[in-house]
Specification:
Strand content of chain B: 15-25%
CATH architecture of chain A: Orthogonal Bundle
CATH superfamily of the largest domain in chain B: Periplasmic binding protein-like II
Number of strands of chain A: 0
Number of helices of chain A: 13
Largest sheet of chain A: none
CATH class of the largest domain in chain B: Alpha Beta
Shape of chain B: globular
Structural class of chain A: mainly alpha
CATH superfamily of chain A: MetI-like
Largest sheet of chain B: 6 strands, antiparallel
Distance between the termini of chain A: 36 Å
Number of helices of chain B: 13
Largest interface: A-B, 23 and 21 residues
Shape of chain A: globular
Oligomer: heterodimer
CATH topology of chain A: MetI-like fold
Order of helices and strands of chain B: HEHEHEHEEHHEHEHEEHHEHHH
Number of domains of chain B: 2
Helix content of chain B: 40-55%
Amino acid sequence: MSGDARRMGREPAILLAPGLFFLLLAFFFPAIQLLIQSFLTVGAEAGRLTMEHYAKIVVDDFYAGVALRTFRLALVITVLCLVIGFPLAVVISRAGKLLRTTLIVLLILPLMTSVVIRTFGWLVILGPGGVLSWSLQQLGLIDRSISLMHTETGIVIAMVQVLLPFLVLTTLGSLGQIPVSLEEASRVMGAGFFRSIRHVTLPLSVPGLASGSLLVFALSISSFITPSLVGGVRLQVMAGSIYQQMTGSFDWGFGAALSVVLLIATLALIIPYMVVTSRAGGKA
Amino acid sequence: MKRSSILATAFGAIIAASLAANASAQETLTINSFGGSYEETHRALVITPFEKMYNVKVEVVTAYSADTLAQLRAQKDNPKFDVVHFSGGLEHAAAAEDLLAPIEPAELSNYDKMYDFAVAGLDRGIGPTYSTAVIGLLYNTDQIAEAPASWKDLANPDYQNHVLFTDAASNTYGMLGLLMINKVAGGTLDDIEPGLEFVKGILPTSTVVSKSPEIQQNFAQGNAWIAPYAQDYAFTLTKAGLPVKFIQPEEGGVLAPITVNLVKGTKKRDLALKFIDFSIRAEASQGWAEALRYTPTNKEAKLSDEVAAQVVYGEDAVAKLVTFDANEIAEKRSSWNEAWSRAIAK
């Protein structure tokens, strides 16, 4: 009996080991290295302990502005993904088998292409003289060529397209577990379509929406390729700033400090969100 | 014990045999080149003819300047390279770290045929500039009928909404362009504020890109009419069918030299010097201009009218070229990067 109990305690540990080992090697080890680096001086007197990198982030409104833009964009992108993704997930989960498969394939297909390629697609559409500008001109809505390149709107559009599948797929998982009979029951009891969605479907899909939006938020806050290609050099986000520090200015200490701040700020936002949504999900 | 000693003997024999084989084989010179179409041209103009002429083998390692510098540092005591090519001013860093060997003018038969700037650093270990990129103005000939004459023309109201800058923080040519704009605006390497102010003045109606393909895209889509950038890139655009021309403004274009350097501690100094001398002969200088539109650094290079019209060529034009001190650039680059990023941030 006691042997069984011990074995049952050990088995999950064995199953966890490969993942844990990988996480340790690929995440905690580099993260700790960055943490150390962020407290060390660079240049002539390299290796001395210092707080100068953090002081620069706090004192300097330029980097505060970059950080603020990064979080604001991530928030807007996450909300838009929720607004577009939830109805889409509901439609997919309630559709017939053929339509459902088609929609899922359409949704997953872009993930088969590199994010760089997809972003280049947006450059063609959003750029000056691009498809968007041309169409609006042909329709007579604008008289000179416009461009959403190098604008925050452009970044948001491209990022929502890139990240939407993550939200829809996780939400689909939750929706699949809701018995259709529950919705049917609510309809029978006199709830309209929207009321049924609002009071039955939505609360029950909170776990999926929560993990999906977390995923979208985390991916967009750390994303680098799409904002730097669509947003350009004048609209810096944190990941781009870090890249610039590391590869352009070779200021590894400051780049490391920016990374640590990004990680801490992300955790500070995500952990309370997880706690709140898991409570809400648990109640439903 | 016994088995291992047999193995050791066998190994010894193999090593001895291969050493003997090497000794009787052709002499080998190890160099770096930059890969892609550049390396192809490099082979055609210099490497292959050199191998034939001296009956030697040239081992080419594809490595950009920064990688090459890192390898030189790591192999300081026993360098693998005999000759290294650098761009972006890294030969100054390598020479300062004592990784390159000085060359006597008498050791190069082409010395007297070179422009002064191309052999200015030989005594410090900085090898000759065998060809050079030049930063000036690229403009769209369909949109701009009369060629711009000055760096200040970037602020010409006729070009409003169509001026394209390249990010100075991530692109060396972008930085050199900024330094020249700064010089014209009255700044120095100790104070780039005038240059930043000039850029800020036209920034609200200009575009800033970070990578050269974006320059092509902006010219192709009609968004860019004028841009400070490199002469060889103007040729890339011309080949792509765009109506783009390069000019050296009256205040001068900026030199971005590409150098061929002697590695300190090479065991093949004589052959390496022959290679360097071969790299700077007039035919090679001319070939670089014909293939990629780099400015010749050998005065005897003869260019056809068509090529000459597309590069800074001839003693008068070359005399106008401006050099910025590479050591000073290296030292101040990160603070300039930051100042630039702030200046252009929305």
